[in-house]
């Protein structure tokens, strides 16, 4: 959910001279002056559903999924879509229909995955802070794997299954912290030591033995996840090498129940001029470790599959100048897309209808009452006027899912575009919905003492 430390493309700076690669990644094209997604003018969709709105291109999502699967052709692999990247039920159903599994990190995401129709056996539950209730729900559902992250979490699972009849042991994985660094933003580096994620390598064998002697449990996976927006396959391969070594160590202690190496996700995309992670290069890098272990591979991408396929459409409200700077004020804010403010992440911004007015250097800012409410700073942007629309690219992952209702702002609508059609897959929230359940006078009926 962030950008790289060294490869970070900040919100500040000139826009790309030729955003053609970014448009192609999203399945966008210009027909005359109009910017189209899946053959439909973005302005036409915006006129129908309003702004700000998230638009997702199903064709671009399918293309990414197919390319990743093709790269691993001939190998035993299961792709589990990382639900946290974009959790809309229509997006989840799209992945289920393509044969993906689901990678979840909360009980809420478990409910979403099941509602979207994923078989329980195709669901993997990761996350460092699973509650007792969430673990009980996952055990009851009989999901494919609960990837535990601490000895204390294993304690809770052992208590939950104590006295349970053994019709099918609870399937567990161990998420390993391999101590492998990756060039990414510090907020989303998850494979280095000294952070909250994963089990230190030196504890894995002992925990594996604990699981192996409990007839109600079964160790089926060793897992690793190094972070997000990774552009180099080598750190992922290093993590896989650690897992393969641990498999051999566990086999040396008689544990032969492991079925798969779970190498996580975090595959990076193009936000500006980066080279996206090449799935063929990833498959090549992982092959020696898969071969050495003799096990299947599990992969858990999210951003790679949906990030480029989404745009956030926003309307220009005002133009203003202050202190020698120009501002383009739009109706989407940091509550709708937090990544520029939170990670200093770069998102390309293009006009939805080309005009002859050229470009200006301006800050693109939203209506939220915070100085940190911006989508771009000192950016070369189209010379748009009030009432015109802009499209913010690369917004398919960690966009809507990280949105909030700050300033009592309803979250945007979500739209899926597919084969020349579009459908509203989440209506825009209303202020009435935001206030539902709140109590104006909580003590009005109390009897005076």
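^ structure tokens above, recovered residues below v
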């Amino acid at each position: 959910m962030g950008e790289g430390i060294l490869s970070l493309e900040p919100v500040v700076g000139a826009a790309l001279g030729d955003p053609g690669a970014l448009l192609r990644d999203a399945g966008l094209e210009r027909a005359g002056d109009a910017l189209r997604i899946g053959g439909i003018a973005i302005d036409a969709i915006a006129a129908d559903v309003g702004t700000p709105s998230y638009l997702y291109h199903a064709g671009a999502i399918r293309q990414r999924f197919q390319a990743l699967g093709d790269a691993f052709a001939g190998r035993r692999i299961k792709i589990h879509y990382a639900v946290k990247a974009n959790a809309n039920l229509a997006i989840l159903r799209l992945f289920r229909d393509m044969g993906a599994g689901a990678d979840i990190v909360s009980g809420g995401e478990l409910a979403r995955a099941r509602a979207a129709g994923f078989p329980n056996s195709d669901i993997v539950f990761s996350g460092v802070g699973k509650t007792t209730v969430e673990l009980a729900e996952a055990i009851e559902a009989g999901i494919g794997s609960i990837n535990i992250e601490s000895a204390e979490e294993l304690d809770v699972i052992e208590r939950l299954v104590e006295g349970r009849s053994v019709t099918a042991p609870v399937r567990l994985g161990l998420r390993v912290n391999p101590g492998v660094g990756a060039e990414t933003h510090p907020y989303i580096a998850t494979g280095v030591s000294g952070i909250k994620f994963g089990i230190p390598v030196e504890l894995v064998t002992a925990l594996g033995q604990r699981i192996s002697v409990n007839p109600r449990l079964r160790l089926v996976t060793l897992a690793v996840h190094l972070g997000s927006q990774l552009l180099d396959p080598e750190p992922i391969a290093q993590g896989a090498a650690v897992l393969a070594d641990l498999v051999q160590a566990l086999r040396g202690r008689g544990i032969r129940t492991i079925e798969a190496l779970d190498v996580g996700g975090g595959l990076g995309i193009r936000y500006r001029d980066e080279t996206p992670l090449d799935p063929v290069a990833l498959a090549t890098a992982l092959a020696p470790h898969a071969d050495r272990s003799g096990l299947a591979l599990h992969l858990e991408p999210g951003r790679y599959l949906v990030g480029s396929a989404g745009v956030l459409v926003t309307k220009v409200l005002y133009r203003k100048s202050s202190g020698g700077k120009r501002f383009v004020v739009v109706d989407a804010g940091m509550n709708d897309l937090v990544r520029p403010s939170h990670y200093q992440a770069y998102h390309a911004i293009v006009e939805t209808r080309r005009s002859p007015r050229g470009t200006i250097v301006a800050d693109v800012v939203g209506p939220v009452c915070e100085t940190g409410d911006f989508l771009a700073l000192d950016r070369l942007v189209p010379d748009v006027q009030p009432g015109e629309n802009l499209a913010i690219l690369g917004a398919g992952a960690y966009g809507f899912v990280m949105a909030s209702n700050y300033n009592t702002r309803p979250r945007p609508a979500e739209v899926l575009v597919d084969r020349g059609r579009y459908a509203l897959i989440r209506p825009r929230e209303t202020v009435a919905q935001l206030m539902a359940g709140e109590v104006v006078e909580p003590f009005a009926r109390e009897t005076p003492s």
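The two ends are 53 Å apart (CA to CA).
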